[in-house]
Design goal:
The chain is built from nine helices and five strands. By secondary structure, the chain is mainly α. The strands form two sheets. The chain has a three-stranded mixed beta sheet, with no helix packed on it. Strands 4-5 form a two-stranded antiparallel sheet. Strand 2 and strand 3 form a beta hairpin. The longest helix has 26 residues. InterPro entries: Homeodomain-like_sf, HTH-type_TetR-like_transc_reg, HTH_TetR, Tet_transcr_reg_TetR-rel_C_sf. Keywords: DNA-binding, Transcription, Transcription regulation.
Amino acid sequence: MPAVRCIDLDGCPTRRGGGAVQRIAVADRRASLLAAALRVIARDGVARASTRVIAAEAGMPTASFHYVFASHAAMLEELVAGILEAQAAAVAEAVGEAGTLHEFAGGALQGWLDRAAAEPAVEIALQDVVAFSRASPDLHHLAATVYEHYAASVAGFVAAAEERFGVRWTVPSADVARFVLVLTDGVAARWLVDRDEAAARRALALGTRALLALVQEQRP
């Protein structure tokens, strides 16, 4: 008989009906609950993603949620942090081999869309968390966290372009970074509504051209 995982918080017997019984490690519970939260939020929204619903989605008792996370807000914070980390890694991978500024800029923008298109539920969940947190005094910091992360990531992208390709802009670097942030934010909002990936890619290509038009000079 195959092993049965025990998710009860109380002590689990070592045997049950002749089959081995084992507890699920906290790290595994956390991963399962975060994945379940992502599915529920993308499908039903944050407002309906209660601890009970998330635990049920993960196939666990509600007590398991409270054992792993200090609160519902703490779970959302961890979920958002994981999404942002994965997004940053995807963009970094997309520009890793870029040999020209055009490849670097286009790769960063298209790389972001590649990930969003591959896992739309992630982008849907993140946008819903941001919208929900804006209206919640207890969670308002989450929206700020997301945009602070985006601002820092884009500023890093602009700085990397300057260092890697010897770029000087016709406007302050901070304005370039804000332009990129507004561009991706707008494309994301429209794409989530119409799911027209081809149109989104054309918009990002135009954005890349507009970004390159801000270059005053670059190293040959």
